[in-house]
Automatic annotation (TrEMBL):
Protein name: AraC family transcriptional regulator
GO molecular function, one term: metal ion binding
PANTHER family the record matches: D-AMINOACYL-TRNA DEACYLASE (PTHR46124)
InterPro entries assigned: DNase_TatD-rel_CS, Metal_Hydrolase, TatD-like, TatD/YcfH-like
Annotated residues for binding of a divalent metal cation 2: H139, H163
SUPFAM superfamilies: Metallo-dependent hydrolases (SSF51556)
GO cellular-component term (any): cytosol
UniProt-annotated binding residues for a divalent metal cation 1: H9, H11, E102, D213
Organism: Knoellia sinensis KCTC 19936
Length: 265
């Protein structure tokens, strides 16, 4: 990248296909191609604890902690949700944890019976982000209308990010009007993602972020392989082409937006 950018949502704690994670090597490979900062997301208790350990180790990494919406129904059923909330709130107070997330709603993996507790958890995380003055990162899968409704009802934090944005052009316009940030992942490079590129095309430069969601959602032409932060440039170039802007212009905006949302590394 001609100007260094941030992978603003990655899971470097997760092994995929039995491939061991060498965090130092992944960060070095990313820096070599102009991705010099990352936001590591831990969205269950073990991952949140590991995230805090990692951000104390690697200067290029900030962190986010939360309970993923698909984790919440099981925690509620076991009677351990309140204790999990207490631990997430404690971990979120670490000075290098700059994000409450990923939280939100997932109607793909959780059925109707789990939606009420997902809604309650989403509202709890929104409140936590506001109380601690942290950015909020949102997971939204097949739940666009309810995500937007709950954000409006609760009042969104100052920095609100739709992680791996998957909405349409109209939703992108509404998010931008509300001042939310839209983070695009490798999915925007997929050949059939015409609607997603339409959404990107109407998003102002000052509302854009980029991510891997590694080890998932690897950009074209490596779709299906294990993702990692060093592949962010593929997504950035595809985004620049869709927006009709020069790559350095987009890189500058992505870097500035990341620092505005998360603060200095």
């Amino acid at each position: 990248m001609p100007i260094a950018v941030v992978d603003n949502h990655t899971h470097l704690d997760i092994e995929r296909e039995g491939v061991a994670v060498d965090v130092a090597d992944l960060l070095a490979r990313a820096k070599a191609v102009g991705v010099d900062r990352v936001v590591q997301i831990g969205c269950d208790l073990p991952a949140a604890r590991q995230t805090v350990e990692m951000i104390d180790t690697y200067a290029a990494m900030l962190g986010g902690v939360a309970l993923h919406p698909n984790e919440v129904p099981g925690l509620a059923a076991s009677g351990s949700l309140d204790a999990a909330y207490e631990e997430i709130e404690e971990l979120a107070q670490h000075p290098r944890v700059r994000v409450v997330g990923e939280t939100g709603l997932d109607y793909f993996r959780t059925g109707p019976e789990g939606r009420d507790v997902q809604h309650e958890s989403f509202r709890w995380h929104i409140d936590l982000a506001k109380r601690l003055d942290k950015a909020l990162q949102i997971h939204d899968r097949d739940a666009h209308a309810d995500v937007m409704r709950i954000l409006e009802e609760e009042g969104a934090p100052n920095s609100t990010v739709l992680h791996c944005f998957s909405g349409d052009l109209t939703m992108a316009q509404e998010c931008a009007e509300r001042g939310y940030y839209l983070s695009f992942a490798g999915t925007v490079t997929f050949k059939n993602a015409h609607g997603l590129r339409d959404a990107l095309s109407v998003t102002p430069l000052d509302r854009l972020l980029v991510e891997t969601d590694a080890p998932y959602l690897t950009p074209h032409p490596h779709r299906g392989a294990v993702n990692a932060p060093h592949l962010v440039p593929l997504t950035v170039r595809a985004m620049a082409a869709t927006l009709g802007v020069a790559v350095p212009t987009l890189c500058e905006a992505l870097s500035e937006n990341s620092e505005r949302v998360y603060g200095p590394w």
